[in-house]
Amino acid sequence: MIEPWLWAIVLIILGIGLAVLELFVPSGGVLAFLSLASIAAGMVAGFMAGPVVGLIILIAVMIVLPSGLALAIKWWPQTPIGRRILLRVARGEDVLPDNPYRRSLREMVGKIGVAKSKML
Fold this sequence. Notes:
The chain has 120 residues and is an all-alpha fold. 70% of the residues lie in helices and 0% in strands.
């Protein structure tokens, strides 16, 4: 029979893997629910092995889960689904056309003007 602390570690690793996978696979929250259930079961199994083991597993989850999710979120824009969802940053040339009127307005940047009416 497998020891409770080993079950706890396996369930925690599975839960963290499912949480990271939730960011990359659109599942409608199913993977997130399974992740939370697995992590909770892993912590319960850790406390069944003993209070010290349970606290160690709890502290490990509190450190590893946010770190893993932060790394996954940082890596997400480079994935195929991240590239489809996130738009690329538009450049000025893409948004505003280059024509003679715009070039004449650019030449006025930094010049001093006089208002023809009262500015309220």
